[in-house]
From TrEMBL:
It comes from Kinneretia aquatilis. This is Uncharacterized protein. Pfam families: DUF3857, Transglut_core. Residues 1-27 form the signal peptide. The keyword Phosphoprotein does not apply. Keywords: Signal. Residues 303-377 form the Transglutaminase-like domain.
Length: 948
């Protein structure tokens, strides 16, 4: 890979992906349009850029081995044979491939052959192209099938490399065919000065491989080093006369799959590295010679140096101006044809054309700095491999980017001339996190350690929520300051994206955790003076921010998205490969809630800390009567998580996750109101104990307490409209439980005025109407509730009851049958009870209607004894005994007795035994369980048939 890594808004390894099929088609179409009339055979061969010839005599034919154990796949590669011979006239790289098409989905890959080469120093020879079908060989090597495409796949990254692609798309390929082809590439990039370097893959993204062989033939006196990270590769070497043969073999190779989260150093473990450079000193000497050819005197550069000296009085200021000039006035564009893949262009040429790639700009910056009296040296770095470059063989191929090491006083600054979005002082622009680099200086024998990223401040965010009144929308003022690389990426995104898309990008993480917010206006963006930073301020309106859990307090989300985004895990689990972590460095996020009145009685201050080998997280929680705040600091200090530590790392994240996204609770009553409420609660408890307030069940006692609390909360007037409606519904429910349906109805009407689109409001109104025997209203409100919340089973039961008592029996029966399609409702048994009653009231066989609806448990829970009584398999006394199950001897369960007597009365009515029905209805009412639907239904039935 050349020294032309594009800096700025990095797209990661996905930028190295292949062109799409549409791009290939476009290139093929362009080539067809440019086709010229046929010339002589010799001229045609040269013009086409390839030739057809027999395989070299030194190639040893290789046959595939038995593929037992090779993973099945639509396309398998039975053999990949690569043989390389280093000759004085140029290295010959022979490649022989055999593909097996097993499924229709493998036809596309199997039918397409693409070979990249650089025509400035390489020649392409085709030796064979065959399809094997039913044991017969079909020769497909025809000149007309071979199309040469000039695709420039890196053009979007502002790089042209002049490489050509020889493309063949086979016709009439079928499942079961084998495709076999062999080619040779002849020639060496002259930039390496006659030294051999290469890196070959022992796997394929096309499919699993039965056998991969790499054969290297080199003159015996030349020392070619190799390094392999994959342990399954077998290596052997022998000397035969003047030639040394080294073989690398790997069998039953799994298909290579690119995964974005895998560290690059791990992803390239399938490579065999080859290098004739003995050590890093030789690589450094080679690089020094390349840069020396480029850094030549240029009058235009002398003039620029004089301008800078006239403007700046200190070395630091001269460095800043020189860096500004190269970064901003020399645009990024790489011409990397042939030797220019690594050879920088002369500084005079770069100045004249006003563009260059990383190595060109590094050479220009170093040359300019030297004219300004500032010591500087080009340096090679690995923007992809980073620290893993130290594990590579000494070779130019270990690097993909060039920067400058600048000496400013006692400090060495590693500066990147391609980062056009940088601002601020030179020290603020230092490249961090690149791991290692190599100074282009022959005297340099070792890799240099570059500044780590662990202490680099990446992003700091302060979110301030303000709520002048809890019953009204609040605001959020979010201020984020991006530093270093992140500031540059955001500047580049701002320049590349439409304003609306950029705003959405900035707000995305905040809205993920606060979905009720809406952005107000446009972001305010500024550059802090003297810093390589970008400050972004966004204002939001809170909207429906608060919820009302358990109708006791307000609850709102509180999150630290800046920290969460860095720790977010991919979906894959369990994991068998290491995982690349987010960019090392420090991330800060503070969330502050401000209120206009004191809501909390006491100040608070607590801390949380988590330390491990991957990250450090520190949180501080502070509270005051009018304020709550979380301050978070995350330090990412590892570049990756080893596969064996994945589970432990996930557990660490699960431990801290609730700390990073949780709920803030806000009391809806003032301190004085809370004191008063506690006093009233104590008085209420005393009244219930001394009997001055008669309650027959725990539910009734709870209803009195809840009603008292709701009255106090509503009087405090701190709830926004929708939540006030929820409080009114809660108040109405408690009033219904106490048999005060008229008062409950008033609360519900008030709730509907505030929030008529609430399913809870209409569900409660349906129950209230049913209790007041307003069946049509009950059905209407239940309909509305279900339109708003279709899965509300409670509203469906209310509608069933209203239809049952309102005479709409067929509709009630149909709905019950639909409800009982849910197994959970069969287990609860109430649906079965009402289906029995409805069916019998329709004159049908009630037992047949529920025959298949028995709960699955060995001892079904209440109210199954009621169903048994209705079926006749249990008498009333037996059902009463089961109603008392779990109670102290002699003690009744009023709620169960209320239900049992009501349903016994219903059965008596269906049996036309009015005296018995009256008796059971009176016993149901005698329980005093006014909070049960069965109580109000019993009163309704007794009124209908008469008490006597």
């Amino acid at each position: 890979m050349s020294f032309a890594r594009r800096r700025g808004l990095q797209l990661g390894l996905s930028a190295l992906a292949l062109l799409s099929a549409s791009s290939i088609a476009w290139a093929q179409a362009s080539a067809a349009k440019a086709k010229k009339p046929a010339a002589t055979a010799a001229a045609t061969k040269e013009a086409e850029g390839f030739s057809i010839a027999p395989a070299p005599a030194w190639v040893l034919p290789l046959q595939p081995e038995a593929s037992t154990g090779l993973p099945s796949a639509p396309l398998q590669l039975l053999l990949i044979d690569k043989q390389t011979r280093i000759e004085p006239s140029g290295t010959v790289r022979y490649q022989h491939v055999l593909r097996q098409i097993n499924e229709a989905s493998g036809l596309q890959k199997g039918a397409q052959i693409e070979l990249d080469f650089d025509p400035s120093f390489q020649k392409l020879q085709f030796h064979r192209l065959e399809v094997w079908r039913d044991g017969k060989r079909l020769d497909r090597l025809e000149r007309k099938r071979i199309k040469l495409l000039h695709r420039e796949p890196q053009l979007e990254r502002q790089i042209i490399d002049g490489r050509m692609t020889a493309s063949i798309v086979l016709e009439d390929l079928r499942v079961g065919d084998r495709v076999e082809w062999a080619v040779s590439l002849i020639g060496d990039n002259p930039v390496f000065g006659g030294k051999f370097v290469d890196q070959e893959w022992t796997s394929s993204s096309g499919g699993p491989v039965g056998l991969v062989q790499l054969r290297l033939l080199s003159p015996a006196e030349r020392h070619i080093q190799h390094r392999i990270a994959e342990p399954s590769v077998e290596v052997s070497s022998r000397v035969d006369g003047a030639w040394r043969e080294t073989l690398f073999k790997r069998r039953l190779v799994p298909q290579f799959h690119y995964e974005e989260t895998v560290p690059v150093g791990v992803m390239v473990k399938d490579q065999v590295q080859l290098s004739e450079f003995a050590n890093w000193a030789e690589v450094a000497g080679w690089a020094e010679q390349l840069f020396a050819k480029a850094m030549l005197p240029a009058e235009a550069l002398d003039a620029r140096a004089r301008e800078i000296e006239a403007q700046a009085s200190t070395p630091e200021e001269r460095l800043r101006l020189a860096l500004d000039f190269v970064q901003k006035e020399i645009r990024y564009f790489g011409t990397e044809i042939g030797a220019n893949s690594h050879q920088p262009a002369p500084t005079e040429q770069v100045l004249r054309q006003r563009f260059g790639d990383c190595k060109d700009k590094a050479a220009l910056l170093v040359t300019l700095l030297k004219k300004l009296g500032i010591e500087a040296t080009p340096a090679l770095v690995a923007a992809s491999l980073r620290s893993d470059a130290a594990q590579r063989l000494p070779s130019p191929l270990a690097f993909d980017h060039a920067i400058a090491a600048v000496q400013l006083g006692e400090q060495t600054l590693w500066l990147d001339a391609t980062r056009s979005q940088q601002r601020g002082a030179p020290a603020e622009r230092q490249s961090v996190g690149l791991g290692v680099g190599l100074l282009a200086k022959a005297s340099n024998a070792e890799l240099s350690r570059l500044p780590p990223a662990r202490e680099a401040l990446r992003l700091e965010t302060v979110d301030t929520f303000s709520f002048p009144r809890l019953d009204q929308p609040g605001t959020l003022r979010s201020v984020s300051t991006f530093h270093g690389d992140m500031a540059e990426w955001m500047r580049e995104a701002r320049a590349a994206l439409p304003a609306a898309d950029f705003r959405n990008l900035l707000a995305a993480e905040t809205l993920r955790f606060y979905p009720g917010l809406t952005v107000e206006g446009e972001p305010e963006i500024s550059d802090p003076e003297g810093r390589n930073a970008l400050r972004v301020e966004i204002k939001y309106r809170s909207g429906d921010f608060w919820t009302f859990p358990e109708k006791r307090w307000l609850a709102g989300p509180i999150a630290l998205p800046t920290l969460i985004a860095q720790l977010r895990l991919p979906d894959q689990t369990p994991r068998t490969q290491p995982m690349r972590l987010a960019m090392n460095g420090r991330y800060l996020h503070t969330v502050r809630y401000e209120f206009s009145e004191p809501l909390y009685s006491q100040p608070s201050d607590s801390r949380f800390e988590e330390r491990n080998e991957h990250f450090e997280l520190r949180l501080r929680y502070r509270g005051e009567p009018k304020m709550q705040q979380i301050e978070g600091e995350l330090r990412l200090q590892a570049e990756q998580v080893a596969a064996g530590k994945w589970s432990n790392y996930r557990d660490q994240l699960n431990k801290v996750a609730p700390r990073l996204a949780n709920t803030l609770t806000v009391p809806v009553l003032s301190t004085e109101d809370l004191v008063s409420l506690r006093r009233d609660m104590t008085a209420l408890t005393d009244r219930m104990r001394n009997g001055s307030l008669k309650v027959l069940t725990e539910n009734q006692g709870s209803a009195h307490a809840r009603l008292l609390m709701m009255d106090r909360i509503l009087a405090a007037d701190r709830l926004p409209p929708k939540l006030r409606a929820a409080a009114l519904v809660e108040r109405a429910i408690q009033l219904d439980h106490l048999g005060q349906s008229d008062r409950a109805q008033t609360s519900l009407y008030d709730a509907a005025q505030l929030h008529d689109e609430s399913s809870e409001v209409h569900a409660a109104m349906a129950v209230n109407a049913l209790m007041q025997r307003k069946d049509e209203q009950a059905v209407s409100h239940a309909d509305r509730a279900l339109a708003l919340a279709p899965n509300d089973t409670g509203a469906r039961y209310t509608r069933v009851y209203a239809r049952y008592f309102g005479g709409q029996l067929q509709e009630a029966q149909k709905e019950l049958q639909e409800i009982l399609q849910s197994g959970s409702e069969v287990e609860r048994s109430y649906g079965s009870i009402w289906l029995y009653l409805t069916s019998r009231k329709l004159g049908q066989d009630g037992l047949a209607a529920i025959r298949d609806l028995r709960p699955s448990a060995d001892k079904p829970a209440w109210p199954y004894p009621v169903l048994q009584m209705l079926q006749g398999s249990l008498d009333l006394d037996g059902a009463l005994a089961m109603a008392r199950d779990g109670k102290p001897e002699g003690q009744a369960d009023r709620g169960r007795d209320c239900e049992l007597y009501f349903y016994a009365a219903q059965k008596a009515l269906l049996d036309q035994d009015l005296p018995k029905a009256r008796n059971y209805l009176k016993k149901s009412l005698a329980t005093g369980v006014v909070e049960f639907n069965e109580y109000s239904m019993a009163q309704r039935e007794l009124d209908r048939i008469g008490a006597r």
